[in-house]
């Protein structure tokens, strides 16, 4: 080794901190002797200067602990090298055959959403499938209030936590099962008489959920008939709460997109504070750009609310008058239909009574005419039988009458008379008279029907069907 790179015995002896007559690299670094190895001049200077004292083991340990062996970047490189060597040392297993299929790595299964015991828990966590199961399968009441938590409904929970999917499903379920009127009552229901908080107020005053989701919820509630000017137990409406939380998108939507905002802007709570006063107080308490814009927006609206209030008031009066006219017209139509039904019923009863009286008179006249025609036919038949032609006809038809009589006697229908010829002649005359009477009555009935037809009133039946077929509004 070169003389410029050698160390003196005294320096090596001082470097031996543990006294085992062996100098390690750590001991050399502890005494900073590596600098002597890099510079020969430093070695000569070290030899001329007085030798330092031997380091104690405690001081040596503290120095070696504070100075690591390798630099951080070198440690990182060595660790990567060891990892790479260990990876390439592992041998890949040889395949059993060329046709062996690759083993499919099973995909990690997605855990199913936890089941909820109550509809309020499902609404709070945003679990739509569990809420659908509870409402449609287990038939839970969608209007039920949670008495243990201030009387809140599932719509209150969904609006508070900002779950748009729960709000959409609950409103669609109520509309499909209960109707539009029930949906309007559902979105305006209060939790309890103590707080008088609606789902709209819950969405406006909540800090949970995303702001865009809460804005979508508020738009849905307003679309389904949520009352914007409703005040809670402290007199605060939706604009009071939106100004209190400095929610600029919600305030902008309520002021510019809804008609009832002009009434909510000028409304006072129980502390005689308007939404503008609350926005000013929040700006003074915690100044921010959002609070400043909310205050400027409400101040601008409050400045123009007089004109807007007149416009809204005129529109409200116009709509009220149109509704009154429509209601009055419907009442008049209903009254006319009811009167027509009563009159038609009375006319129908009167017509039926008159028809029955006329029919009875007609039937009596028909019976009288038929009796007269029958009596007249009987008299003519009897007179004809006494004539020469009648006797000749009776003599001609007598054998056939005798045969019929014999058949009746053989059948046991009639007993055997003493004079069969006389009885056959009498029966022949009676049959002729009955036939003439029947023919005369039939001819008289046809003549009477032509001269006196059945009573009908097509006009009454037509108007009666027209009135009864009219829809009841």
UniProtKB/TrEMBL annotation:
GO terms for molecular function: ubiquitin-protein transferase activity. Gene3D superfamilies: Ankyrin repeat-containing domain (1.25.40.20). SUPFAM superfamilies: Ankyrin repeat. InterPro entries: Ankyrin_rpt, Ankyrin_rpt-contain_sf, EF_Hand_1_Ca_BS. The keyword Cell wall biogenesis/degradation does not apply. Keywords: ANK repeat, Repeat. Residues 87-112 are annotated as: Disordered. One of its GO terms (biological process) is protein K6-linked ubiquitination. This is Uncharacterized protein. It comes from Saprolegnia parasitica (strain CBS 223.65). The lineage of its organism: Eukaryota, Sar, Stramenopiles, Oomycota, Saprolegniomycetes.
């Amino acid at each position: 080794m070169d003389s410029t790179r050698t160390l003196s015995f005294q320096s090596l002896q001082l470097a031996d901190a543990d006294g085992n007559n062996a100098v390690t690299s750590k001991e050399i670094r502890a005494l900073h002797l590596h600098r002597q190895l890099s510079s020969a001049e430093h070695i000569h200077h070290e030899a001329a200067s007085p030798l330092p004292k031997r380091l104690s083991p405690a001081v040596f340990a503290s120095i070696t602990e504070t100075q690591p062996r390798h630099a951080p970047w070198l440690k990182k490189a060595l660790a990567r090298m060891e990892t790479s060597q260990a990876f390439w040392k592992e041998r890949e297993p040889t395949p059993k055959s060329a046709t062996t299929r690759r083993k499919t790595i099973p995909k990690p299964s997605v855990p199913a959403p936890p089941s909820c015991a109550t509809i309020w828990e499902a609404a709070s966590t945003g679990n739509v499938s569990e809420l659908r199961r509870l409402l449609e399968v287990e038939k839970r009441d969608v209007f039920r209030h949670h008495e243990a938590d201030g009387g809140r409904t599932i719509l209150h929970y969904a609006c508070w936590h900002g779950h748009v999917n729960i709000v959409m499903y609950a409103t669609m379920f109520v509309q499909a099962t209960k109707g539009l009127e029930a949906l309007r009552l559902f979105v305006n229901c209060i939790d309890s008489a103590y707080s008088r908080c609606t789902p709209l107020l819950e969405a406006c005053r909540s800090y949970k959920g995303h702001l865009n989701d809460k804005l979508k919820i508020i738009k849905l509630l307003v679309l389904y008939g949520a009352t914007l000017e409703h005040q809670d137990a402290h007199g605060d409406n939706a604009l009071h709460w939106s100004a209190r939380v400095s929610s600029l998108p919600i305030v902008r939507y309520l002021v510019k997109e809804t008609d009832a905002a002009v009434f909510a802007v000028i409304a006072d709570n129980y502390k005689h504070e308007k939404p503008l006063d609350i926005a000013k107080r929040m700006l003074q308490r915690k100044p921010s750009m959002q609070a400043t814009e909310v205050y400027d927006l409400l101040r601008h609206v409050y400045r123009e609310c007089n004109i807007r209030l007149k416009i809204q008031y005129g529109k409200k009066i116009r709509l009220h008058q149109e509704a009154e006219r429509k209601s009055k017209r419907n009442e008049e139509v209903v009254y006319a239909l009811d009167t027509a039904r009563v009159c038609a019923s009375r006319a129908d009863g009167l017509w039926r009574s008159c028809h029955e009286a006329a029919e009875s008179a007609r039937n009596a006249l028909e019976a009288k005419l038929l009796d007269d025609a029958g009596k007249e036919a009987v008299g003519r038949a009897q007179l004809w039988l006494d004539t020469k032609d009648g006797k000749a006809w009776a003599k001609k038809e007598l054998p056939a009458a005798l045969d019929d009589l014999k058949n009746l006697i053989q059948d046991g229908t009639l007993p055997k008379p003493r004079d069969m010829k006389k009885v056959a002649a009498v029966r022949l005359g009676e049959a002729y008279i009955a036939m003439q009477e029947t023919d005369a009555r039939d001819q008289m009935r046809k003549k009477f029907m032509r001269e006196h037809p059945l009573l009908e009133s097509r006009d009454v039946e037509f108007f009666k069907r027209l009135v009864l077929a009219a829809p009841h509004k």
